[in-house]
Amino acid sequence: ALVVIDAAKRLRVAELQMLAKLKGYQKEKGRKFPPLYLCLNKIDLVKPNDKLFDIVEFVTSKADFEFTHYTCAPTGDGVFELLVDLLSEAKPKPWPYPADARTDLTLGERVAQVLREKIFERYYDEVPYQIGIEIEEALQLSSGPVELKITLNARSESQKRVLLGKQNSRRKHLEITSGKALFNVFGRPVNVQIHIKTSAEARGARS
Question: Which of 156, 193, 150 is CA-nearest to residue 175?
Answer without folding.
Answer: 193
